[in-house]
Amino acid sequence: MLIEVFSGRDIDSAEAKGAFHFAVAPKPGEQIERGAELLVVRRAWHRPKASYRDAKYAILAEGRVESQPCSMQRDVETLS
To answer: Would you list the DSSP string of 6-30?
Structure first.
């Protein structure tokens, strides 16, 4: 399912991050991973007026949390 992802506290000030494919549409309160970031879905909605080629659903996500580095990276940092 193609979903437009917005990042920010509210839709008026949110930054569009692009359209991404999800197996299941995320619901408010769920965490999604985007690259090395974990984001919390704040709002999800259907966009029936979107043209056929655009995403029909959108989510607003915030709360960037850095993923923990893998143990191999930590070992390299310890040696230097």
So the answer is: EESSSTTTPEEEEEEE-SS---TT-
Query: How many domains are contained in the chain?
Result: 1
C-alpha–C-alpha distance, residues 5 and 61, integer Å: 7
> Percent of the chain scored above 70 by pLDDT?
70
Backbone angles phi, psi at 45, to 5 degrees: -150, 160
Whole-structure pTM value: 0.68
Residue 17's pLDDT is what? 87
Instruction: Tell me the residue range of the domain where 63 lies.
Output: 2-79
Dihedral sign, CA of 33, 20, 26, 57?
A: positive
